[in-house]
Automatic annotation (TrEMBL):
The keyword DNA-binding does not apply. It comes from the Bacteria. Residues 119-210 form the FecR protein domain. Keywords: Membrane, Transmembrane, Transmembrane helix. It comes from Chitinophaga hostae. The lineage of its organism: Bacteria, Pseudomonadati, Bacteroidota, Chitinophagia, Chitinophagales. Residues 257-322 form the Protein FecR C-terminal domain. This is FecR domain-containing protein. The chain crosses the membrane at residues 94-111. Pfam families: FecR, FecR_C.
């Protein structure tokens, strides 16, 4: 938060959380920057009486002076006359909330955004057990965060990018929520996969039921086992697809690719996603050829060699480019 407008948005919502207009304004503001959600959650916690950071860590008097200086420096347009001007005196709690913004900003350099725990992977995969007992499996190039107090006041996980599989411990009193770019996924107890890509977000359910929705809208879908939803960035339509049991959505986790009379064009899609390469079928007459094979944790060259012999096709592989002809 860098100005009074941001403070107004959060405080108006905290004072009247049932107001639909305030909810919408808050939602739009939080989507402007990934760190805004962290700031809001910290302000909300302090608004409801959670303790502020230890005095030894923060210069409270200094922060108040910073706030007063900031408000004194708000520019005033001189040429235009003031019309219907009104002055609103902020109550003590409103001023305290504004000061809390500066306190939160002071934590940024040593705690990360709002004290959130952040986990990120590079080329490797990883897994971790969340405080509520749920398991989280991270694909390569994935970043997730969850708030302090996870499992007590909320069970909220934010996936900034990449792909993660969630095996959620059931808790009827505390829904498990995953925030992805523009999309919110909510469950009670289930196992599901979330992939946040450049084009949008995909949600696949292995067991249980999941609600996937565009943030700030009523557009949502209930997913059951075997169903995948695709939610595009800046979109409002939700596409769903039913997958047969032997699919490769979770191949990144199982490290096994399975093809059951799968057309070559679908095989290519799975290989591109699994090995992070670009594959072209130069001869489109080959696109309908079907592959029956299982590849347990094999290298791409091993897979391509088996495909070449099985389907009687030609394959070249150089760097991250593969050509089938």
């Amino acid at each position: 938060m860098n100005n009074q407008t941001d403070i107004d948005i959060v405080v108006r919502y905290l004072e009247d959380p049932e107001n639909e207009q305030f909810k919408q304004q808050l939602n739009e503001w939080m989507q402007q920057d990934a760190g805004n959600l962290d700031i809001f959650l910290d302000m909300k916690a302090m608004w409801h009486g959670d303790p502020l950071p230890a005095p030894s860590t923060f210069d409270t008097d200094g922060k108040w002076q910073e706030l007063n200086t900031m408000l004194d420096k708000v520019p005033v347009a001189m040429p235009a006359p003031l019309v219907n001007t009104r002055v609103v005196k902020m109550n003590r709690r409103y001023w305290w909330a504004a000061a809390a913004v500066l306190l939160i900003a002071g934590t940024w350099t040593w705690m990360g955004p709002g004290g959130y725990k952040t986990y990120a992977t590079d080329m490797q995969q990883d897994s971790l057990r969340l405080p509520d007992g749920s398991m989280l499996y991270l694909n390569a190039h994935t970043q997730v965060r969850y708030a302090r107090g996870f499992g007590k006041a909320n069970r909220l996980v934010k996936i900034d990018k990449g792909e993660a599989f969630f095996d959620v411990k059931k808790n009827d009193a505390l829904p498990f929520i995953v925030n992805a770019p523009e999309v919110e996924v909510q469950v009670l107890g289930t196992a599901f996969n979330v992939k946040a890509a450049n084009s949008g977000v995909k949600v696949f359910v292995q067991s249980g039921k999941v609600s996937a929705a565009y943030k700030g809208t009523e557009k949502k879908v209930i997913l059951t086992p075997g169903v995948e939803a695709s939610l595009k960035h800046n979109g409002n339509a939700i596409d769903t697809r039913i997958h047969k049991k032997n699919n490769n959505i979770l191949a990144w986790k199982t490290r096994t690719l399975t093809f059951d009379d799968t057309p070559l064009n679908e095989v290519v899609d799975a290989l591109e996603d699994f090995y992070n390469v670009q594959i072209t079928i130069s001869n489109q007459q080959l696109a309908d050829k079907k592959l029956l094979a299982t590849f347990p944790n094999m290298s791409l060259d091993e897979v391509l060699d088996i495909m070449r012999k099985t389907l009687q096709i030609n394959v070249t592989h150089k760097n991250d480019l593969v050509d089938i002809y």
